[in-house]
Design goal:
By secondary structure, the protein is an alpha+beta fold. The protein has five helices and seven strands; from the N terminus they run βαααβββαβαββ. The protein has a single domain, classed as 3-Layer(aba) Sandwich (Aminopeptidase). The chain binds coenzyme A.
Length: 165
Amino acid sequence: MLELVPFRREDRESILEWRNSPSVATFMYRNTPIGPEEHRSWFEKAMVDHPDQIHRLLLIDGDPSGVMSLSHIDRSVGSAEWGGYLAPHVARGVGHGRAFIEACIDLARVDLRLQLVNVEVLESNTAARRLYESIGFEFVDRINQRVVRDDEAIPALRLRLVFDG
Ligand SMILES: CC(C)(COP(=O)(O)OP(=O)(O)OC[C@H]1O[C@@H](n2cnc3c(N)ncnc32)[C@H](O)[C@@H]1OP(=O)(O)O)[C@@H](O)C(=O)NCCC(=O)NCCS
């Protein structure tokens, strides 16, 4: 069973470990390590829902398994930006990512009553791109120099899912 729950303090250190692991950090805009103090201050804010941003922990059969955020929530437009990842110990390629993102979309559509969700993804992140495309996200535009790594400009794509009805 898959659930999205508010952050619990006992998961703070695991979330830092996940976020700094190569299987997650590689696909984030910031891939350099996040320190404990910086994480603590981020986590305290992320435990609380804000008008423009919420965070949730993914539980798979009760096991902490991922993190998601909806940021830039704009109720006048009905939009938000999704971000998230599966924890490094969660098996890849067996459908967890799809179920996770579908649950996040339900949260945005049904609970928050939004009209659309945007996402930005590194162009090189094939798994995430294919997943978004298969769910129905559509290309908006390409950011040619979203991050620079080893003196190389890395492009990202903006994608959007507009909900029906
Ligand atoms: C992206 C991520 C959520 C995918 O999770 P997953 O559980 O491996 O994906 P699923 O098994 O649910 O696969 C769903 C779809 O994703 C695509 N996909 C998954 N792995 C893929 C791979 N290695 N290569 C190409 N496409 C892949 C496929 O379209 C797949 O559909 P299919 O099984 O019908 O072919 C997960 O890898 C992750 O958390 N990555 C690190 C963080 C990240 O990239 N976050 C997104 C930042 S924008």
